[in-house]
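Incident review: delayed structure delivery

Summary: a single-chain prediction request sat in the queue longer than the usual turnaround. Root cause was a stuck worker, restarted by the on-call engineer. No data loss occurred. The affected request and its eventual output are reproduced below so the record is complete for anyone auditing the incident later.

Affected input:
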Amino acid sequence: MKTWKDELEGRMPADWATEIDLFENQMELRRQGKVEEKLFAETRLRRGAYGQRYDNGQRNDGTGTKALAYPNGALTKGPDTIWDAPGMQRIKIPFGGLNPDQMDVLADLAEEYSDGICHVTTRQDIQLHYVHFDDTPSLLRRLAAIGITTREACGNSVRNVTACPLAGVCRDESFDVTPYANASMKFLLGHPDVQDFGRKFKIAFSGCRQHACGLVNMHDMGAIAVTREIDGETVRGFELYVGGGLGAVPYDAVLFDEFVREDEILPITQAISRVFARLGEKRNRARARIKFLVKNLGMEEFKRLVLEERAKLPHDDRWAAYLDELPSHGEKPLKVGASLNGAARPEGFDAWCETNVYRQRQPGYCVAAVTLPLGDITSHQLRELAAIARRYVGESVRTTVEQNIVLRWVSEADLPQLYEELRALGLSAPGAGSIVDVVSCPGTDTCKLGIASSRGLAGELQSRLAAKAMELDKAVRDMRIKISGCFNSCGQHHISDLGFYGVSRNVGGYTVPHFQVVVGGKWVDNGGSYGLPIGAVPSKRIPDVVTAMTDAYLRERQGQETFQEYTQRVGKKALKDKLAPFTKVPAREEDASFYSDWGDPREFTIGDMGTGECAGEVVSLVDSDLSLAEAMVFDSQLALENGDFTAVADKSYQAMLQGAKALVKMRFLDITDDPDQIVAEFKQRYYDTEIFFDRFGGGRFGQYLFRRHEQKEQPTDTAAGRQLVEEASLFVEACHACSAKLAAQGSTAQGGAAEGVTSTVVTLEL
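Output delivered after worker restart:
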């Protein structure tokens, strides 16, 4: 009798089936202690299997006991290893392309192995949370049987290849990039030349320069479709960019070549991969992305090495084999395209059409966006959406980088009925691609690096904005809000009109969740520019900040100014001044809500440090010093805004020195203002002892100070200046985190020179 595994074997690609068998064997060897955990961690990450956070109190029974019953049993305590509790499984969806059969299986897997939720990510992947690691092999086999893999969804590998969800139907594209994105994914998957990277490598394809669907500027490698007339023929090619990336310090991608012919895109990608694998950083993960290699070498030298590598590559038929299939490529509409022709419009239909319907370049057809709050869709909804797709569009479904799903090739005449069916499922919310459509990373819900609840804040903002969506001016509706739980920008806060990333502050002995407010980002032009943080605000005041900022924008706007243009005109100082009314944290006795995070009723506290006895507010000396460091960072931003790069270098360096000095004074009060002594003491007392190290990246950020102290680098352009400002900001945030950690330990003198010194306070007269 055939088992379920035998049934699947015939439907899985043979090489995928073999790989999953090998992975299952590696799991068993790890259980037996025959494979080191460090090696096995990379092995499972390359299969998309992550550990998950469990100290958050989220998705619980409301009592904070984490008593949710998972598919294979209840979790009652935090996990000690990957085996002890459910984790997260990332599933690669190349260019976001899905069909109804795949949607059905994803719905089944979420229901059987997860918590019944499929989560769409900002890179068009699907993630399942609360998956038991023991279930991974069976889950992978069921995915492989429908043509989906999780291989290299994580780890030091080529991640999911993304592309514009409108590719092939966009009115502004040069040509459809779908087959090129798909060919890149197939060619690079498991390729031996991409197995020895120091860090991950992300690729994106865009059909045009002006829109944001591909976000080429923020990718390790990005390709924009272009055409040229050569010998009287229209030739397809790509404007190729390399070295972009968000993360803690974002980098703009750099133009590699204005025109790479279509038959050269795969060999050039292979050559770039080989150069990155050979010369990219391996030991220091903080500088192991290709953006650092490009910066260190310079584009001219990097390109020379790549072209030299390209010339040595042995021919591979796969480089151009897919090009023969291009004439037959293209989705076939399920129905004849027909206009709406004055058909009856259900209640809410017009508002939905305004934001969620895009008219294709093919007459009579539309793309309908299904807005997914926080990127989540239930198993039931996904299964029913698959049925809807079968009735209206066949296999033309894609995920988007804004965490939604789109149905392509919808006949305009079917829009009212489609809307009614989506409404019955709770999937007809308008606002796709608007300020209501808030993007968020998982944050403290499930991510081990999360500092503040990005999903909780996103949900609150969505609820408030949706309630008054019809009253919002179009200029505000067209804005984007993106939120990350920490500085790593998984929520893409750097490229939004209003971005927020989670930090914390110590207030009266309690840790209070805050968000840094980021302005100046540009979503269009493929993520055209990055914003910078202008100040930290308590989490509970962020909705008020959004209201204040958008109101000020409408009040002070000139002509048809976009929000990004407005922020550039008024300047960072004026914007920071608008935050001032929202930065104060009331005493816990006055308003305890500030001391918990959105969506989590528990107190966000680390213990009482003690309070002063004067008739004034007592602030620890380190907090006062770190506040000064923040002010210095902001001064460096103003210098950047004025194009004074010498001042940028000096002020950002001084901000880091001030942060380091603040920490040193906690243990060694007689520190001078001599930079050499400050850096030496900081290194000896905090860096070498790894006290500065934590899951937020303190070790990496400490290197920013050392490099600046030794090299005294001077920026020569805005991008280099922005990098120095970002690094200073992150270093000061790491100082805040280190200070809070020491406060939580109950002593600031452990291992220090000033034994017995516990804390110093400054009294601010009221």
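Verification: The chain has five domains: 4-95+116-144, 169-328, 349-424, 437-608, 611-766.
Action items: add queue-age alerting; document worker restart procedure.
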